[in-house]
Amino acid sequence: MQQNQTVPEFILLGLTQDPVRQKMVFIIFLIFYTATVVGNLLIIVIIKVSRTLGSPMYFFLFYLSLTDTCFSTSTAPRLIIDSLSAKKVISYNECMTQVFALHLFGGMEIFVLTLMAVDRYVAICKPLRYPTIMRRQVCIVLIILAWIGSFIHSTSQILLALKLPFCGPNLIDHYCCDLQPLLKLACMDTYVINLLFVFDSGALCSSSFLLLMISYFVILHSLRNHSAEGRKKALSTCTTHIIVVILFFGPCIFIYTRPSASFSIDKMVAVFYTIGTPFLNPLIYTLRNAEVKNAMRKLWSVKITSESKW
Questions:
Q1: How many Cβ atoms sit within 10 Å of the Cβ of residue 301?
Q2: What is the DSSP string of 212-246?
Q3: In this structure, what are the phi and psi dihedrals at residue 9, rounded to the nearest 5 degrees?
Q4: pLDDT tens across 246-282, in order?
Q5: Could you tell me the residue ranges of all domains in the chain?
Q6: What CATH fold (topology level) applies to the domain 9-304?
Q7: What is the mean pLDDT of residues 201-208?
Q8: pTM above 0.85, yes or no
Q9: d(CA 127, CA 64)
């Protein structure tokens, strides 16, 4: 993989070195990760089996939940296991794989949230043309393009990581492998790679967030011409999306738009968008979405009825 690479493995310092706190980390994040997987898989199943959730919004929500599950899985299991390990060792190849997975599913999260904003813009600002513009075939093509874009982004990140020679030390002050903490260990001048890293990840986060905020501003501005009931429904949906966008993009921008500076709070901020946001998304989309809650009730009632008959 890397001719100049002499370090066969890295040691992750994790969130804390205190044994008592490590046990707390194990319990807390095991609960968070389990709830994340269960919650997102529940949304996936509900959207798949429900006949009432066939609109493009739920088509994209399906992929958001799928991405959240994979995104959280790229970091949480190792964090949970390492919290009980005396020596948190990760091999070079595993580290590079984690960098690739982190940016693949992180990029997909960005693109899916952008597609959801596009869907809401067309639904609210172009209601008569909505069925034509956001037809099933178009949505499928958009998701395929999102996967391609995510793959290109993650490939660019892993190519930058593979260019870094590691001669020692091999202590990563983080709970996962990412390009930013790896840059500190490289035995070379990383100025250019650092700029490329910020230009790629930082620009992707910042530009996507700016476009999303502009689109939602246009949507909210256009609601003046809608009825009171239409405004209420549209505001409910848009508010949900805006909350998710801010929760995800805020930490991302904080982490990926700085050229070389690092702060002690970085690890906690990274935890929030890699594990916290995938955990919160199912809660936000179910608690604030009447259609999803109704579909859940119908699915539950069908299950209870079938069990009683049995």
A1: 10
A2: HHHHHHHHHHHGGGS-HHHHHHHHHHHHHHHHHHH
A3: -155, 165
A4: 889 988 888 888 766 666 688 888 898 899 899 988 8
A5: 9-304
A6: Rhopdopsin 7-helix transmembrane proteins (1.20.1070)
A7: 89
A8: yes
A9: 24
